[in-house]
Amino acid sequence: MRAIQITEFGGPEVLTPVELPDPVAGPGQLLVEVDTAGVNYADTHAVDDSYLSRTVLPVVPGSEVLGRTPDGRRVMALAGTGGYAQRAAVPESLAHEVPDTVEDGPALAMIVQGLTAWHLLRTAGRLEKGETVVVHAGAGGTGSLAVQLARFFGAGRVVATASTPKKRDLALELGADAAVDPEPEGLAERLKEAGGGKGVDIVLEMTGGPVFDASLEALAPFGRLVTYGMASRTPAIPVEPARLMARSTAVIGFWLARLLSRPGTYHEPLDELLSMTADGRLRPLIGGVYPLAEAARAHEDLRARRTTGKLVLDVRD
After folding, report:
1. Mind listing the domains of the chain with CATH numbers?
2. Average pLDDT in the 239-266 region?
3. What is the pLDDT of residues 222-235, one digit of tens each?
4. Hey, CA dihedral for 199, 202, 206, 212, is it positive or negative?
5. Radius of gyration (Cα) for the chain, nearest Å?
């Protein structure tokens, strides 16, 4: 089968098209004939081995697949690894049937990014009706969905950040009340002002470094900063407990992998997200569809912030 493999750590250039033997489904696994595979920012961390879970070489990256089972069912699944390939063996418990009313790209956007946005707001951030929510990277894969879901879940005000005027306009189109530049200098003040001047209740943060620091400073009393990424690959300033105590604020870490074994945290939210997508209440953005052989270009575009929404590999090309 055709696949993308990495045999050494590095940048996008180490993503190499190869021919590999077909995988064999073991106990508790399901073989999927892959049509499309999702690309996530976490995949770029796997390629340079900078993620929370370590990468063991050689490996076929990719955690999301959509395709057909041997008995003809159309499913999408979290694969762990092995998604950038014509066939993947996935955990049967993480295979989810996809209605024909939802196309491949929008369906793939629901697995990691949709579930993450859903849980950031409901499970980690515990959004209450009327609260002000800041969504960093509001035109990105997770951010664009979080902007829409925050509005749907009852946020009183939604503030997005995005790196270009075009992306900020897109975030506003998706339902944000305000969109600001994420440049760290002066960011805390811009977030407070956009949120109404008194600080914000929830910040969904995936950059790290000085953006994390500014986001923490922008919180109102009893505000929550939910951190779920390390896109800048820059550490933030260590948080002193007294800094949190002074305004009764919280820093909450979130990693989707920690939820997958808990009842009600995977299939049920996916059903809701797919239903919302099918009837038009949720608008997943597809930022690019690349042939499997051009996975490296997809990673280059993602890391360079040239994209919006979900990136997809078409394994059939």
Report:
1. 2-98+285-314 (3.90.180.10), 119-258 (3.40.50.720)
2. 95
3. 999 999 998 888 88
4. positive
5. 19
